[in-house]
Amino acid sequence: MRDVTHWKYAAVLTLAVLAVGCSSNSKKELPPAELVKFDAEVKLDEQWSRSVGDGQGDLYNLLTPAVDGDSIFAAGADGDVMALDRETGKVLWKKDLEAPVSGGVGVGSGMVLLGTLKGEVIALDAASGEEKWRARVTSEVLSAPATNGDIVVVQTQDDRLIGLEASTGTQRWIYENSPAVLTLRGTGAPVVTNNLAIAGLSTGKVIAVDTQRGLPVWEQRVAVPQGRSELDRVVDIDGGLLLSGTTLYVVTYQGRLAGLDLQTGRVLWQRDASSYVGVAEGFGSVYVSQASGTVEGIDERSTSALWSNDSLARRELSAPAVFSSYVAVGDIEGYLHLLSQVDGRFVARERIDSDGLRVRPLVVGDTLYAFGNSGKLVAMKIR
């Protein structure tokens, strides 16, 4: 586990990153940009809403709901976990883990997976909420564990990738990495296929290991640290990885946005970018919430920007999500914004949670689920 000094550095850096748009030597931070007025072109209708524990809690957690079949699962930092019918919002079960949840929610193969600040991975039965097992790992878990049904893979805050038996939680393997000297507080969730476990690291690299033994298959550097200070050299991959077909999409803080070949790690395309929340993909385009608050649509074939909307500067945006013909992002004041995929213009806006919307909206079919920082979970459809 990291020493206290490193943890303090990480905490300080989190605050620095949240003051996006300000350089490390700025004397005064600029406030979030005022919202611009526009004529709404579509209407977001609330289908249902529920309160889930204390939501993201007092720390900079990124607890994102997950859907499996007809159920949606969500967790609060206080340890409350809920399963709900995703169409009606009816509570199917509720569980108090009696532990501070900091990583989640992962679902698959009949399991709900969560990580804690105490360095535990917890597996619940998806149908009943009963605890199946609890496993100790090397440090706090700040992202959702992932599974393919045979193995559960978790990335810890100290940049280790750990494989656990899905049936028992027994450790199968551990892949060691040396974290960067200074990092953002957080990690992206790993991606697990039938034979690969892939993760983005604080050093700006993406690694792939085989799921059976944890042996390296490929490694690709996406960003090279640059600058004179350690703060300038931070190139964390904190927004997670996005897998679409055989292409793996990744973006780093103060580095690059890239598309990688899943099997080989070969860079298919790349361009400069800086984001700590992640990307979305749809209709041959990639969408990114930049650390500055600018939202961009990028043509995957030419890697050129199709459009750029900087009206949400310094509003600490969530990762984007593709919703129908639109791109959805949340912000620090709890507004959900819909932008056109064609030109990035605003088409709708709805305030969800006055405490903010930090995590990526979750889209399943014609329904968008937004999970506010206070724990408000809302299902919405476009009218």
Automatic annotation (TrEMBL):
<comment type="similarity">
    <text>Belongs to the BamB family.</text>
</comment>
<feature type="domain" description="Pyrrolo-quinoline quinone repeat">
    <location>
        <begin position="78"/>
        <end position="309"/>
    </location>
</feature>
<keyword id="KW-0998">Cell outer membrane</keyword>
<dbReference type="Pfam" id="PF13360">
    <property type="entry name" value="PQQ_2"/>
</dbReference>
<dbReference type="GO" id="GO:0009279">
    <property type="term" value="C:cell outer membrane"/>
</dbReference>
<keyword id="KW-0449">Lipoprotein</keyword>
<dbReference type="InterPro" id="IPR018391">
    <property type="entry name" value="PQQ_b-propeller_rpt"/>
</dbReference>
<keyword id="KW-0732">Signal</keyword>
<dbReference type="InterPro" id="IPR011047">
    <property type="entry name" value="Quinoprotein_ADH-like_sf"/>
</dbReference>
<dbReference type="GO" id="GO:0043165">
    <property type="term" value="P:Gram-negative-bacterium-type cell outer membrane assembly"/>
</dbReference>
<keyword id="KW-0472">Membrane</keyword>
<comment type="subunit">
    <text>Part of the Bam complex.</text>
</comment>
<protein>
    <recommendedName>
        <fullName>Outer membrane protein assembly factor BamB</fullName>
    </recommendedName>
</protein>
<dbReference type="GO" id="GO:0051205">
    <property type="term" value="P:protein insertion into membrane"/>
</dbReference>
<dbReference type="InterPro" id="IPR002372">
    <property type="entry name" value="PQQ_rpt_dom"/>
</dbReference>
<dbReference type="InterPro" id="IPR017687">
    <property type="entry name" value="BamB"/>
</dbReference>
<keyword id="KW-0564">Palmitate</keyword>
<dbReference type="InterPro" id="IPR015943">
    <property type="entry name" value="WD40/YVTN_repeat-like_dom_sf"/>
</dbReference>
<comment type="function">
    <text>Part of the outer membrane protein assembly complex, which is involved in assembly and insertion of beta-barrel proteins into the outer membrane.</text>
</comment>
